[in-house]
# Entry
Amino acid sequence: MSRSHAQAFAPPPESAAERRNLVGLSRAELAAAMAELGEKPFRAKQLWHWIYHRGETDFAAMTTLSKDFRARLGERFTVARPAVAEALVSRDGTRKWLLNLPDGQQVETVYIPEEDRGTLCVSSQVGCTLTCKFCHTGTQRLVRNLAPAEIVGQIMVARDGLGEWPGDGSGGPAEGRQVTNIVLMGMGEPLYNYDNVAAAMKIAMDPEGLSISKRKITLSTSGVVPEMERCGRELDVNLAVSLHATSDETRDWIMPINKKYPLKMLLDACRSYPGTHNARRITFEYVMLKGVNDSEEDARRLIALLKGIPAKVNLIPFNPWPGSFFECSDAATIKRFADILSAAHISSPVRATRGDDILAACGQLKSESERRKKSERAGADL
Ligand code: SAH
Ligand code: SF4
# Structure
């Protein structure tokens, strides 16, 4: 992304009066912060272990460090996560955290348990600048990039909430960890905040910390073509592309970024995405919009577009929100669409709706909480 975008939407700087948060610093930055205190590099290694492997937030409890060092750390630093404003658990086990950021902004993180994995859906921005017509996040006005600490902090909040740090009193997870996979599919466009997302994912992948393998991390983009190659080369994470249409005409309408990076350009970037092969396919997300992108002709065009790309397609039933213009395709239409793809040997699961009793779909809890706050304020004015 251009420097100007990164600057215009940068997270607010930490105030010099406050203690500095150690979460979100790279290993090198942590070592430099310790060097400033006159400490040797191995201290940074010990701290890293406490912060990201043990999940400890209290310096006083970091018993492998000397008492004097713990006291000096406590004077200058914190180990902070975003504050939890609301934590909800759905009937189906889906969890959702609404998080308060230091500047009053809010983001959300969703945990989806499945039989063989637990996936955490992480946000990368407050709001989104891209205004896709079917997406509620795109209508939210306030936008800024999340800092590395705010991105990696979402994973730490989930580990806190699920009680899955070793030695946190809960005895650690009984049968392995619950958060096994990360998808950058929450609020925001991760490739418009590439540097901070990359810094956070490098921390998440570190084997001596959160230790989530790059094979278990998927970044979803609306198609920010100039950043895709770098993302594959530097982070080597799985790629998901929000395709949602099979002609430039429709995609221009529902996803305005298509005017900048049209289908041919996007699919060429997919063809050359580093590390793609049959065992590691690109996921194409396709939201089913009644009468817009769900015809048999669309399905056949989609097959032609994906030729030569190791691909799978996730068919997503459209999730309506108050004031949304679209309707979800009927079940029979979705099935027909999926069958046409399957006949062409393209795996095309239909995504199940999860956590609908806690408004787990993108952007909904945040707007529900804002609506409530507004109505409370209105009530107070009466
Ligand atoms: N900005 C990135 C990642 C976040 S959106 C992107 O667009 O890929 C995660 C996925 O949810 C995207 O595929 C997005 O198109 C889809 N989505 C957004 N609003 C939706 C809705 N109302 N119903 C169903 N899927 C939606
Ligand atoms: Fe932004 Fe993705 Fe929503 Fe489009 S679909 S507005 S890129 S979050």
